[in-house]
């Protein structure tokens, strides 16, 4: 009798141990396969915004690190005007306890040898060749949602070597315009559709910099935000006129313009497009 009871106790103990082992296996955390071997790569980092993109010195390239199945890309931005990023939506970035991405200070070297310090960020990458959400906050204190894509990884850690060793990519604004003053056709999208800007607009190139003179159809715009930088009107009478930098022609330039025409000031998002074929 005692032997039977002892056998049952042993059996129950074994079953309990098996159940615990199986439960532990079920809770084992698995890392998704990124489809690329661990290592360091130069990869393309493209966004839906001309306000948020890789510094022109690096031509949309960043350093992608893959370790233990997880991917992170380091990108150097245009300036120090974007102060934090968040891997997700803006509404979540503003919640208490949200873990924001802090900037690093990066040195970039332009084609003419000029060196500058800008902010860079290490951004988690959930998957290659697929859009994912990244929110940003600039020096003006507002969060904005953006979509980004990481693609075309090339093994290595030298961005300039990949750029200089690969085929020529699309030219930026500076390459498409000679020094001096020109006119260019410009279109405006966004808002209610009632506001317009004067076209053609005047653009001025000095060295690597291009400035566009934007004249609104209203006198009530009191500032514009381009690439996180706030610009005041250059006139005091008549319709609002601004001088803003243009990083790329034939691609959307996202701007924010604040209007005082309503009962309270409102920031409105617009998109400007400059047609390089119309330059005179």
Write the layout of secondary structure elements.
Blueprint: H1 2-26, E1 39-47, E2 61-67, E3 70-76, E4 82-86, H2 90-93, E5 104-109, E6 115-125, E7 132-138, E8 143-155, H3 159-165, H4 173-176, E9 180-190, E10 201-206, E11 209-215, E12 221-226, E13 229-231, E14 241-245, E15 253-259, E16 266-275
Short summary:
This protein is mainly beta and 280 residues long. Helix content is 14%, strand content 43%.
- Over the alpha carbons, how many angstroms does the gyration radius reach? 26 Å
- The span between the termini is 105 Å
Side by side, the strands of the main sheet go 4-7-8-1-2-3-6-5
- Report the CATH C-level class of the largest domain: Mainly Beta
Determine the mean pLDDT.
84
Q: Count of helical segments? A: 4
Descriptive notes:
The chain is mostly beta strands. The chain has 2 domains: 39-165, Sandwich (Immunoglobulin-like); 173-278, Immunoglobulin-like, CATH 2.60.40. Helix content is 14%, strand content 43%. It is built from 4 helices and 16 strands. It has helices spanning 2-26, 90-93, 159-165, 173-176, and strands spanning 39-47, 61-67, 70-76, 82-86, 104-109, 115-125, 132-138, 143-155, 180-190, 201-206, 209-215, 221-226, 229-231, 241-245, 253-259, 266-275. The strands form 2 sheets. It has an 8-stranded antiparallel sheet. Strand 15 and strand 16 (266-275) form a beta hairpin. The longest helix has 25 residues, at 2-26. The radius of gyration is 26 Å and the shape is globular. 27% of the residues are buried. The model is unreliable at 24-31 and 166-171 (pLDDT under 50).
